Amino acid sequence: MACFMFLRLLVVVGTIASPITAFFTSSGSPLFRCVLPAKTSPPQPPHAVGPFATVAQPAPTPVSPMPPSSTTSSSSLTNAPSSSGSLQPLGPGHGSGAPIDWWRQWYPMAFLDDLDPARPTQVELLGKLFVIWADHDKTWHAFEDQCPHRLAPLSEGRIDERGNLQCAYHGWSFSGQGGCVNIPQAEPEIKAVAERSGRACAKAVPLLVAQGMVWLWPDNSPDGMEASRSQLPSTVPELHDPAFIRGAWVTRDLMYGYDTLVENVVDPAHVPFAHHGVQAQRSMAMPLNVSLNYVGKEGVFLSLPRLANSTIEFHAPTRLHYLFDFTGFFQRVPLMKWAFRLEKWLRRLPPDTRPRSSLVTYTIPVGPGRSRILALFPRNFFAINKPRWLDHLERNAVLDGDLVFLHGQEREMRRPELKWEENIDRAFYMPTKSDEGVRAFRQWLVRWGAGGPRWADGVDSALPPRSNDRHFLMDRYTQHTTQCSACRGALRNIRVLKGVTAAMSLVCMTAIWTPRPASVLGKILGAGVAMAFGSWQMARLEKRMLFIDYVHAHK
Ligand code: FES
Ligand SMILES: [Fe+2]
C-alpha cells in the first residue's frame, strides 16, 4: 500500500506548495471597557511574537512529559514502555495517573485558510457552540456563541465598522476580549453603567493560531484559563523542520463520533477494502504485524514495519500521526533515488535528509455521534501540490468510503449487553495483530479517557437516531464544501462555467438554423457540441462537490 501511495504522489501536479506556516499566535488587546469576570487575554505560548508572524525559533517544548517525539523512528520508540506480552484488557484502577480532562485541551477547530475574516464562524466542540471571528487587525478571537443580552448566537452577527463583533439581534458590540463596547439602545446614563457590567460581556474562550490552524481551549473558567497558559497545542513536529512542506490539508464533519473516528484511523487494515479503487486495492490486503510499544495517559504508540517502516502515534486526545520512511523504496527505484537527490540539491536540503512523509489527523469530539477531522500530509520530498480543491475531491471520496458503515457500527457498539467498556474483546473478535491499535485505543479510552468525551452540561450523550439517508450521511456540500475556502471558490467558478458553456451551446444550436455556407455551419455545430460537452463536464464536477454515493458493492 505504501508503494501505491507513493506512486500516487508521483502523479501529483499543480501549484507550488504553500510555504510552511510555523508557529503563529493570536495577540493584541482591543478596547476593553468593562470588568470581565475572569482574565480573558489569549494564551501566549513561548516564542510568540505577534499575530501572523512566523517564528524562527525551534519548536516549543510541551510542558507535560511526553512519550518519544513524533519525529523519531520506530526503533527509537523502544524506550517507551512496552506491552506485557499478550494484551489483557485494562480495567478501572490499572495503570497510573488520573484520566485526562477533556475540557483542558487545545483542539484545532479549523484551518486558517478556510475561515472568512469578514464574518464570524460557528464551531461546535464537546457539544458546546463557540464563535470564532477576526477583528480588523486580523487577530482571531473565540467566544461562547451566546449574546449576554438575550442569548442570540453571536455567530449570526457581523464585524462592525470598528472591528468589533456585533450581535445580529439588537446590535450590541463586543471587543476581542469580550467587553461590551456598544449598547445602541442605552441612554447615556444607562450606557455608562451597563457597558461596564460584567453581565454585558461575551464569554471569551482561549484561542491561538498555530501551524495554520485555529485552536480552542474550551474551559474558560478562571482555573481553566490559567491552565491554558501552561499547556501548548499538540502541533506537528515535522512542520518545524524547514525540509517539510504541509502537503495537502483538508477538513470534514463526520456523522459518527470521536471514538469511532480514532478507532478507524488507528486501523490501517481497513484501507485496501474500505477504500478500494480510491486509495488502495483489495488485492493489497495482507497480514499486518502491528506491534504495540506503549499505551498510557499520553496515548498509544505502535509500529508497523511492513508499511514503509511506519509508526502510528496517538497523542491523546486529538493527534493521530502516521510516519512513513520511504528510504528503502527510494533506494530500490533508481529513478526515485536520483530524483530525490536532485530535489535535495535544488531545495538545499541537508545531506542526511531521508524521504519521509506523514499522515496527521486531528480528531475532534464535536458532539455525541458527530466528529470533525482535520488532516495534513507533510512530506519532505516533491514540494509540488495539486490545486487544493482538486485534491479534496479525492480526499472526500476516501472519507465517504467509511461513512455509512461507521455510522452503523457505532450504534451497534452502544447495545447495552455488549459492555465494551468492561472488555473490548467481548464486543469485538480480533484474532489478528492488525487490530492492536484498536484494542490499545479502547484501553486508553476506558482508563485514561474517562470512557469518552465529557460533553457540555445538558447535552444528552445518547447518539442521534440511526439514519439510512445516504444523502444525509455523505452530504459533502454541508460537511466539507461550505467550510472549505478552496472548494467554495471552485464550486462558484464551476457553476459560472457550466452556465456560460450551456448558454454558448444554446447560441450555437440556434445559429445553425440560419442559412449559411456548409463549412461555417459545420464549425458552429462543432463549437455547440464542444460547449455542451464542457457544460456536462462542469455539471459532473459540481456533483462531486455536493454528493456522490459510495457503494462498496459497485467498486
Ligand atoms: S440578543 Fe444580542 S443584542 Fe440582543
Ligand atoms: Fe475542499
Characteristic key phrases:
555 residues; alpha+beta; Naphthalene 1,2-dioxygenase Alpha Subunit, Chain A, domain 1; Rieske Iron-sulfur Protein; 3 domains; seven-stranded antiparallel β-sheet; globular; disordered N terminus; binds FE2/S2 (inorganic) cluster; binds fe (ii) ion; chlorophyllide a oxygenase activity; PaO; Rieske_2Fe-2S_sf; signal
Summarize the structure.
Residues 69-91 have a biased composition (Low complexity). 29% of the residues lie in helices and 16% in strands. It is α+β, with helices and mostly antiparallel strands.
Name given to the CATH architecture of the largest domain: Alpha-Beta Complex
Number of helices: 14
| Overall mean pLDDT | 84
How would the global form be characterised? globular
- Rg, rounded, reads 26 Å
Largest beta-sheet characterization = 7 strands, antiparallel
Bound molecules: FE2/S2 (inorganic) cluster, fe (ii) ion
User: β content, as a range?
Assistant: 15-25%
Measure the end-to-end span. 18 Å
Instruction: Catalogue the unreliable spans.
Output: 1-94
Tell me the number of strands.
18
CATH superfamily of the largest domain: Naphthalene 1,2-dioxygenase Alpha Subunit, Chain A, domain 1
CATH topology of the largest domain: Naphthalene 1,2-dioxygenase Alpha Subunit, Chain A, domain 1
Q: What is the strand arrangement across the widest sheet?
A: 12-18-17-16-15-14-13
Number of domains: 3
Structural class of the helices, strands and pairings?
A: alpha+beta
Q: Identify the CATH class of the largest domain.
A: Alpha Beta
Helical amount among residues, as a percent range?
Answer: 25-40%
